[in-house]
Structures are given as structure tokens and as C-alpha cells.
Amino acid sequence: MSGSHVDASGCYGDRSVRIDVLESPEGSLWVVCLFHGVYGVASLEEGNKYGELARRLSERGITTCLVETSRDVRNRSDFPDRTDWAVAAFAGKKYGQELFDHMSGLSKVSEIFPDGRICLWGFSLGGIDSLMIAGGVVEPVSDLGLDVPPVPLDRIGALVISGSGDTLRSDSSIKTSLPVLSSICEAEVLREACRNVEVSSVDFFYGSEDDTFDEPSCRRLFDLIPVSNRHFTVIDGADHPFRSLDGISSTKPLDLMVETVSSHLQGHPGDWPR
């Protein structure tokens, strides 16, 4: 199953937002726009989590676009240590620049699929960005003096948030000293974005073994979203990246999320246009 590739404008490092597109063979009413977590790599390569999600969604008749944000270097495989990779790729990048990149990627996706209903699916920081975008909060971008990319809010019909909360665990292993996290907006700004969300459906997923956010921090965001068709699913034994179950590498968390999301998208299309 092959895909195509396009680029959008980025605002840091190589100035490129890379988008891998995997279209459903029979066409798709929905277009899922996947946002990776902090320091993430998103591609259609075998073994890449986001590529695996795209293939599963395509098999269920849903087109998927993987959005990989701008960075200084992209050769993740050359860095055995995750911290060394993060510093090399994102040393000077601020949160507003990461949000810009996701907005730019979404803008490009909306151009490629002008008639598609868009579902934003974000992991960790990508989930936070999804909520900020859907809630119309753009100050982290404009405060940096960047032009805000045009985002089709009226075409975002669904949100899927995987492992995103409003407060990191005190013992989180995430390196918060790099600017992309140290410059992130206050939690109340994110909460206000949640209050502004207007979509047809919302799915939140939380892994019970998440070592980055605790469940209350995720539920606080979920509870603020004024959407009646919403679901909060705890996946027992899943870790923060949703790549293991009870400490053992497993695709079951991905399978469960895809099954749930595809069922909700296909079963609850919502009013269109909104």
C-alpha cells in the first residue's frame, strides 16, 4: 500500500512540514490528519506508529495524512539516545512554532482534499495542538510575530486525542527544558480552547500505564469540551505512546483505537456542512 508526499511551509530548521498521504482505495468521506507527539517522527515507513495507524485506517475506508513538523535534522535513526536526538532536532524551537507547523500542515491537507470532512487526531503534544486549533486559540503563533496559517475550522468535524493532559506528571521522563515545552502556553489557555471546541464527535484515549500524564489531567480537558457525542476510553496496560501493553510491545492499543475511531466516524458523520 503506497502513498504520496507533499510539503507545507514550516517555520523552524529546514522550514518544511512533511505530509505523507495514504488515500483509501475506494475514496473517503473523512480525512484524518495525524499530529505526532513532541520530538515525533511520522512517516509511512514500516514500523512507524503513525504509518501503522494510516494503513489500518485506509483498510477501513478512511484517508489519512501524516504531518511531520519542521526540525533541524530528520535522521532519527542516527541517534541511539532519544535526548541527543531531541536536542539535535529541536534545540531552538518554541511551542508557537510547533503549533504553526501543525496549522500549516492542516491548511495544506484542506487544500488537497477540499471536500473532505477533517478529523484531527493528535498524540500527546499533537493532541494539545489539535485542541488549540479546534478551539481557535492562535496566540502562541501570533505572539511570535508569525502569520497565522488559514485553518478551516468549519471543516473540522471530529477530534481524537491520545494521551494528552493539561499538566505533566512531576516524575515525567519528558525533557521539559527544551523551548518547545518550556514555552508552552499556560494550562488555563488550553482549557479555554477546550471550552471553545465545536465538532460533531470527540474521542479521548488514555493508557493506564501513562508515565507522562495522569488520568485526571486528561479528563479535565475532556470534561470541558461542550460536545454531547464524546467518549473517554481507558486502555488498561497501555503506555503513553500506546506501543506496549503491560510492559510488552503490542499493537493492540493501536488496533483498539482505530476500531473505535473508524466506528465513530462512519457511524456518526454529523451535520455537513456545519
TrEMBL record:
Task: List the InterPro entries hit by this protein, alphabetically.
Answer: AB_hydrolase_fold
Q: Where on the tree of life does the source sit, at the highest rank? A: Bacteria
Cite the SUPFAM superfamilies for this sequence.
Answer: alpha/beta-Hydrolases
Keyword set, alphabetical order = Hydrolase
Q: Name one GO molecular function term.
A: hydrolase activity
Q: Which protein is depicted?
A: Alpha/beta hydrolase
